[in-house]
């Protein structure tokens, strides 16, 4: 999940002005380590969401406009289920129908929920996220003025 958030934040930053940003610049904005940025951005580069530029003004550059990149694209890059658990209740060897089946049921449920989430993510673009962030900023400024 954190890789999805890192990729989303970094890509919105890159889409905002279209400039290249180093992993150090992105890490300062995201409040995380540049190594984590590089790890996640390499996944984004692999599927064509960003390009890299070497040199003094080098870094990551967004490959498409914010209108063309969906949150589903970001999910596909990081490839980590958004809804997941490593722990399951019950015991598959139990004679109790509830205890023996709950783990399998929860796995099926989370799979279904992830499928539904992917549909929603496919409908939201980076441009939509940036517009929402602007609305949040405007609302906060109004609250400060009150």
TrEMBL record:
Stored InterPro entries: Tscrpt_reg_Rrf2, WH-like_DNA-bd_sf, WH_DNA-bd_sf
GO molecular function: DNA-binding transcription factor activity
GO cellular component: cytosol
Organism domain of life: Bacteria
Listed Pfam families: Rrf2
PROSITE patterns: HTH_RRF2_2
Protein name per Swiss-Prot or TrEMBL: Rrf2 family transcriptional regulator
């Amino acid at each position: 999940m954190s890789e999805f958030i890192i990729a989303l934040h970094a890509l919105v930053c890159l889409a905002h002005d279209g400039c290249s940003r180093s992993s150090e610049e992105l890490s300062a904005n995201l409040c995380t380590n540049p190594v984590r940025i590089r790890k996640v951005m390499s996944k984004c580069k692999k599927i064509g969401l960003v390009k890299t530029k070497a040199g003094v003004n080098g870094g990551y550059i967004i490959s498409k406009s914010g209108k063309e990149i969906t949150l589903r694209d970001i999910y596909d890059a990081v490839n980590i289920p958004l809804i997941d658990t490593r722990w399951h209740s019950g015991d598959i060897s139990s004679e109790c129908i509830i205890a023996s089946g709950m783990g399998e049921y929860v796995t099926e449920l989370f799979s279904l929920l992830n499928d539904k989430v992917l549909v929603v993510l496919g409908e939201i673009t980076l441009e939509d996220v940036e517009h929402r962030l602007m609305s949040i900023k405007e609302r906060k400024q109004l609250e400060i003025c009150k």
